[in-house]
Amino acid sequence: MINTSHRSQSTFQPSVARGASPQETVTNKVDLFDPAQPPDPLRQAFDGITNAGGVAKAQLLQENQSAWNARWKLVEGAKDSITAQYFCWDHDALGMALLGHMFKKARNEEVQIRLMVDSTGDTFGTRGFKSHIGGKDYLQEVVMTGNAEAKVYHPHWKKVIDQALAIGSTAISANNHDKILEVDGNRGITGGRNIGYEYFVHPDDFKGAWRDQDIYFEGKETAHALRRAFDVEYGAPWITQKVRGDLLGNWVQRDLELLGAYKMMDLWLKDKPLSMEEKQHLRSSEDGRKGEARHLMDRALAALPDEGLERAASRRERKSLLKLAEELVGYTELRGSYNATAPDMHDAEVKIIDKTSSVGIGTDELNSTLWNLAGAAQKSIYIENPYVVLSEDMIQGLRQAGERGVQIVLGTNSPASTDSAVTQAFFLRDWPRLSATIPNLTILCASGNRKLHAKTAVIDEQATLVTTYNLDFISQHTNSEVGSVTWSKEFAKETVDGFNQDQADPLNGVVEYKILRDEQGKPIRRDGLPVLDEKGDLVNEPEVLFGPANHLTPDMLSQYQKKVHRWDFLRKILPQLNPVDTFRKH
Question: For a 10 Å CB count at each end of the chain, is N or C smaller?
Fold first, then answer.
C-alpha cells in the first residue's frame, strides 16, 4: 500500500527493467556470472538458497476469487496425489466444499491424499475439523476411503505436556502456520490464505473480506521442495496426532454431505455469472437467497448418482446441505468465476524456504534467508505484513539497509483494520521508535473495512517473497512457517502494482504514520531535546505528526494502552508469555 499524499518521494514505483528479461534469467544464467560485471549481491543471496526449487511458471494470486478458483482447479486436475496443510480450515461452505472435493478424488479416483490441520487454528474445536464438536466426522469419512490420511498438529494435550516438561519454553505457542497445497509433485500454492470464506469472497459480498496474497506455481523442483516442507512436520509423530475412523466404522455417514458440498460449489463456480440486478436481489432478499439455495441443493443432489452415490438424502443431510447452500449463494461474485480471466503466468525461478516449529526438528531456512535477502538490498525493500512486532535483530537488519540508502516501505494494519489486538498494542508502542531509528522508512497503515493479511516483500524490484510469515516473535521463533522467493522482474512488478492498487482502494483507507523531521529528514522535537544520539540510537521519544490519535477514537486508544500495560505486567511475572500472541486467524 502506497500513500503519496503525505510524502511524494516515498512512492514505490518499479524502474525500467535492466539486463536480462525474466525468460533470459531462467534459461540462460551466463550473463549473471560475467567477470566484467560487478557481482549482484541479491542474485548471490538468491543463489545461496540451495535444494529448494528451480525453474517454474509463477502466478500471483491477489484477487480472492482467483485464489479460490486456482485451488479448485488444482485439486480438480490431481491425478496421483494431494498434500494439504492449513493453519485454519473452517467447516463453512468453502471449507466443506474443498474437503468434499478431496473426498471425491480419494473415493472415486483413488488419488492419494494427506491432510493436516493445526490444533490452535481450530482452538476450541468448534469451527474446523479437529474434534467431534466441530467436523471431525467429515475428516474421518475422507480417511476411511482407504486412500487418505489426516493428522492434527500439536493437539492441546500435547502442548500442555510439552510445556510442563520445559517450563519457560515456547511449546504452548508452537503451531503449524504453514499453508500448503501441492499436487502430483509438479504444482502447488502457498501464501497467506487459510481455508475460510473471509479469504476468498469479494468485498461487495462481505465488507470485511481479507486482502491477502498467494503464489501458484508449476515446476517439479519447486513442488518437491513444498512437499518436503509438508513432510518434515507431518512425519513427526511426537507432535502430530493421526485421525482414525471410529472403532466400528463412521457411526454417522458424511459421504453425501461431502459430495453434496463439493457439487454445489462446482455448480456455483461454473454457472453463468449473475447480472448486477441478480446480485443485488440475492444480497438484499432473504427469500431470494433461500429460494436460490434450495434450487442449488436440489441440482447438486440430482447430480450425485453421477458421482457414484445413489441413496436419497436424509432429513439431517438435507438440512446440513441447505445451510451450506444458503451461505454459498450469498457469495454472488463467486458465481461463474471459474472461467474468468486468470492472472498472468510468468517465467521465473521459484524457491521454497521453510522453518519448523519450536517443538519440531529445528529446521530454519526461512529466517536466515530473509536476513540474507534484506542484507543484499541495494535500492528498495517493500514489505506488506499484517502483524508487526519487530525483534531487535529485525530492527537492526532494516536499520542497516536504510543506512545504505535503501528505501523501505512498510505496509500493515492499524487498530481499525486488525484482528490481532495484542500485536497492534505493541505496534502502537513501537512505531515511533521504528520511524526514528530506521533511515528511509515509510510506515503506511490500513484503516478501512478490509483487513490486510498478505505477507509479502519485494526487494530491488527483482526478488519477491510470498510467505506465511508474520513480522512477530511467534513466526520468528515458535511457529512452523513456509514461503516462496521468486526471481522475476515481471512477477515483482505485478506485486508492486498490487501494492499501489491497495493504496488507491478506499476500502483500505491507507494513512501514513509520521514523526516530526527537519528538512534533511532527521528526527527532531519542538522542545529542542535530541531524538537520536550520535550512533543513531533513540534517546528521547519522537514527536508524532500523524499517528493513531489522528484517526482512532479516544476509547480505542485507551483500550490499547491498557492492553500494553497488562501484557507488560504479565510478561514480567510469566516470561513464557513473551511469545504468546492472539489465537485468532493468523
Answer: C
